[in-house]
C-alpha cells in the first residue's frame, strides 16, 4: 500500500513516523527550514551526553574507544555515499573542505578556477582567495535565475584547473547535472569538487554515479547536526595528484609514534585530518547516519520529491512564481517562491506571519524558501499554504 500523494510504501511510512518521534520539537512547531538548520534528535543528544558524561564523571573512555567510534562514523559515511572507507575524511565544515581542496591543486599564475554565480559564499570565496596568487576566478553568470551546465562547461579552457559547484543550490534549490559536468571536467583534465550540503540527507548521493573527484558537506542542516563535523570525500585515484596543504599526527599511518617525523603521509583522505578530532560530533552523527541508512536514502528522496512536488504544484496553481524547477531531476527538497506573486508586499511579511504561527521557513534574497524533511507531512504543507494564502 502506498501514500496517495507521496507515493511511498507502508514500511517506509511506518519507519518515517517512528523516527519522527525522535524529534520532540515537532510537537510544537511545523519545522520546514532544514536548508538553514535542522533540529537535533533524542538519539543524537543521548549519544553525545553519554560521551560528555564519561568525561565528567568517568569512567574515562580510552582513546582506542574514541577511535573505534570514529571508524564507525567513517564506515557509515562510506556506505551513505557509496564510497570506500579510505576515501572518507573529516574536518569541521564545508568551507574548510573546499579551502583545503583549492589549496591542493598545483596552481600556476594564469590558471583559472570556475564557479557558478549565485552560489553560497563557501563555493565562491575559496576561488576568489586564489586571486592573490594570480589565479583567475571565473564566476559564470546564471541563466534565467539558474546555473547552467553548458555555460559552466563553456567557461573551461586550457588553463582551467578546477571547478567547484553546489550539487543543490541553497537559494533556488536547483540540482545540477553533476555527471554531465564530471564528464566534461575529466575530458579537459579539470578537478571537479562538489558542495553537497543541501543534498546530503534529502537525496541519495552515489559518488560513483556522480563522477566528481571530490565532494564535501557539513552536518548542521539536512543531516540533523551536530555542528563541527564536515565530511570530505576524495576519490582514491586523485589523491596522488594533489598537494598536501596541511599535516599533523593523524596524517600518517602510526599516529602514536610521536618522534618518527619522517613517516609517509597516508594515501587516504583522512590525511587531511591533521589535529584532534571532534569526537563529540562523531558520537552525535552516528545515530543520524544509522537512521538515514535504515530509512533508505532512495526512499527518502522519493518521499521528498513527491512532498515538495505537491507544494510546488499548489503554489503554481495559485499563480505563484516558483524559482525552483519542477522537474524531479532538477531539484531536491527546497522550494523557493516569490512573495509578491503570492499576494504579499514582501517576503518578510510572510515570514513574520508564519513565524507567529510556529511555521519555520527562511527568507533568502527577498523570497520565501521552504525546505521540509522526511518526517514532514502533507498536512504540514497544507498548514503552510493556509498561512500564506488565508487572511489573518
Would you give an account of this structure?
There is one protein chain. Helix 2 (42-57) runs antiparallel to helix 9 (279-295), helix 3 packs parallel to helix 9 and helix 9 (279-295) crosses helix 10 (297-317). The longest helix has 21 residues, at 297-317. This protein folds into 2 domains: 10-40 and 296-389, Aspartate Aminotransferase, domain 1; 48-293, Type I PLP-dependent aspartate aminotransferase-like (Major domain) (Aspartate Aminotransferase, domain 2), CATH 3.40.640. It contains 12 helices and 12 strands. The chain has helices at 10-20, 42-57, 63-81, 94-102, 121-129, 149-154, 178-188, 207-210, 279-295, 297-317, 347-356, 378-389; strands spanning 30-31, 88-91, 112-116, 136-140, 160-166, 191-195, 214-218, 230-234, 335-338, 359-360, 362-364, 367-370. With 392 residues, the chain is of the alpha/beta class. A 7-stranded mixed sheet has the order 2-8-7-6-5-3-4, with helices on both faces. Strands 9-12-11 form a 3-stranded antiparallel sheet, with helices on one face. Strands 1-10 form a two-stranded parallel sheet.
Number of H- or I-type helical stretches: 12
What fraction of the residues are assigned to beta strands by DSSP? 5-15%
State the CATH topology of the largest domain.
Answer: Aspartate Aminotransferase, domain 2
Q: Spell out the CATH superfamily of the largest domain.
A: Type I PLP-dependent aspartate aminotransferase-like (Major domain)
CATH architecture of the largest domain: 3-Layer(aba) Sandwich
The total strand number stands at 12
* Helix residue percentage: 25-40%
Count of all domains: 2
Quote the average pLDDT.
96
The profile of the biggest β sheet is: 7 strands, mixed
Strand/helix succession:
HEHHEHEHEHEHEHEEHHEHEEEH
- Unreliable stretches: none
In terms of structural class, how would the helical and strand content be classed?
alpha/beta
* CATH C-level name of the largest domain: Alpha Beta
* Distance from first to last alpha carbon: 38 Å
